[in-house]
């Protein structure tokens, strides 16, 4: 246990005047399933070259300069007719909280990963922000981004923030953070100029749905749809996949799949273990949704500086009996096939679907969503104190839905590079999941 002493929150405004305007979000941004704040956390150690410099002051000043270029983040989200989201670029600023903790990084944990020790002290306002953004009649929503910088007595610090998912995706967050870190290191402008350009992912006129979007097929007009939500006995654990673990899983695959993507291998293994752990009836449909960054799927590709949501959830659907009764090859091929469905036309079709049917949420019943964050390795973002010890999501889940998780670049306790997977499950299911995973990796590892 340790004590966190917070200063009074303050508003950080852009360092110079910025345009006062209304900026509509795209129809991809505007979907119901993104109307949540995502908590992200970074842990940095003390660095000798930064002796005498206060991380709070460095980061606060750099934030003000970054907001000159990313000025929509200093505004507010508001709802118009039909609940259409717009960013009111009014320059009101970002909420910023300074804090002090009487602990060192080593006291927090020898190996930082979700769940973090004393999480509620480090991100005390998380429940409040989640509730505000799920209130459907709220016209002016919470700050698009909120930050807290906590000094540690070892000289390190913790940077935590909540980004409203309607504003940007993982790529966009990474781009914003990189620009912010550049400013902290003395730059006068971002190396990648930000691009708003949300009109490229607005619905066409007239809208026309040309692709199958199984990720939204749970929704039926005028019917109440059940949602898998957090239960009282849910627990959070993280699992590490390094080269040895990935090689162990690959041993289950036939020769023609030996060199398939690491993501496909891990995703297939997790999907099967999770389905078995939840004891889903054999004839029930189960699905895995994989997030695909669509920026390079456009012709020409979206501008490098585009920081809006530009991803889709292509979905593989089967029954629990088929998934668990077939070999791992079956799941790998389903996942590999579905990733290739995301094209420029697929994204336009999705925007049209969302405009026609309203702000859908993706499937959340017997559903597992996996997001690959390897391409946005925010651990390497350097504010002057070097690489972070851990950077990434503070936990799994999104809003009330626990079935979303991430593959986060990380190191294990031995210093080996790999991927960390935080996952929520009911307590009994978590024990079964861990046993299934250990049996898979242990049995194969013994053959290496």
Ends distance: 42 Å
Biggest sheet descriptor:
7 strands, mixed
Instruction: Count the DSSP helices.
Output: 11
CATH class of the largest domain: Alpha Beta
How many domains, as an integer?
Answer: 2
- The name of the CATH topology of the largest domain is Chloramphenicol Acetyltransferase
In percent, how much strand structure appears in the residues? 15-25%
Order of helices and strands: EEEEHEEEHHHEEEHEHHEEEEHHHEEEEH
Mean pLDDT: 85
Low-confidence stretches: 126-145, 219-225, 444-448
Overall body shape: globular
- CA radius of gyration is 22 Å
- Which percent bin holds the helix content? 25-40%
SS content category: alpha+beta
CATH superfamily of the largest domain: Chloramphenicol acetyltransferase-like domain
Identify the CATH architecture of the largest domain: 2-Layer Sandwich
Number of distinct beta strands: 19
Protein name: Benzyl alcohol O-benzoyltransferase
GO molecular function: transferase activity
Pfam families: Transferase
Family: Belongs to the plant acyltransferase family.
